Amino acid sequence: MNHKVRKLEKKGVMHFRWAEYLGDTKTRIGFGIVVIFVILAIFAPMIAPNDPLYVDVINKLQPPSRQFWFGTDNMGRCLFSRIVWGSRYSLLYSFIIMVITILIGVPIGLVSGYIGGKIDNFIMRIIDLFMAMPSFVLALAIAGTLGPSGKNLVFAMSCVYWASYARLSRALTIQVKEQSFILALKAGGCSHTKILFGHILKNIMDSIVALATMEIGGIILSIAGFSFIGLGVQPPTPEWGIMLSDSKNYIQTCPRLMLIPGIVVVIVVMAFNLLGDGLKNGRYER
């Protein structure tokens, strides 16, 4: 009996095939851009040519040069160095929020979809409540109540964005739990915990990863938006939203101060969307 259960445990698990995902040109472009910015974030101290926090008012609003590749901002700080360091803060906060929301939402959705009944109905009403309210507005209210800081922003966004992962994981769990190999595992004496987290989770994780990859672009945009209005990461931290906020008064006299970080945000968000779309449309083998 145990031998049959082990054979059933191997059945139905989806295997990730990178060649199929990266075979698409758009996916390769998105993946390449994401890798570049991850490298920039990890090796920011070695890549940035200047101190991103060093204020030199004598050299403020300087045009691009060998010393300052993107020029300097209104306080004489190296714009390129701040872009490089900004990738560390923007990606770090977005990844932390994504991980927290997955750790909260996915187990809730798994349990809700697997157990069903009144518990499922109760959890779904809570999810519907969160989904009915605009995520940005709800996160804005929480962040505004707690006060402006990076930690409070992470907490506020994590409290809001988990609902989409819970809804998706619940729907996928309902589909997978009715498959024959799950029913056979139950008949073979496999525990509910092992079925839930050892088999159903494996089968739905690919879809969860695809959703997370697509949503991380939106999270980066939200972080930049909160920082822009003063409720996110606080100055003088070199974060892209703060750079946009600091340069809004120079949009006519020195537009590159706002254009450069704005273009960087657009490129990163586009890259994650392309990568997430490739993962969503990828093929699996059983």
What does the model show?
The chain is mainly α and 286 residues long. It has a single domain (61-280), classed as Orthogonal Bundle (MetI-like fold). Helix content is 72%, strand content 0%. It has helices at residues 2-10, 18-21, 25-42, 44-47, 79-115, 117-132, 135-146, 150-177, 180-187, 192-228, 240-247, 256-280. Mean pLDDT is 82; it is low at 1-16.
Defining traits:
286 residues; mainly alpha; MetI-like fold; 0% strand; disordered N terminus
Strand content: under 5%
Number of strands: 0
- What is the CATH topology descriptor? MetI-like fold
Considering the protein shown, what is the CATH homologous superfamily? MetI-like
Mean pLDDT: 82
Task: Give me the oligomer status.
Answer: single chain
Q: Could you write a compact summary of the structure shown?
A:
The protein has 286 residues and is an all-alpha fold.
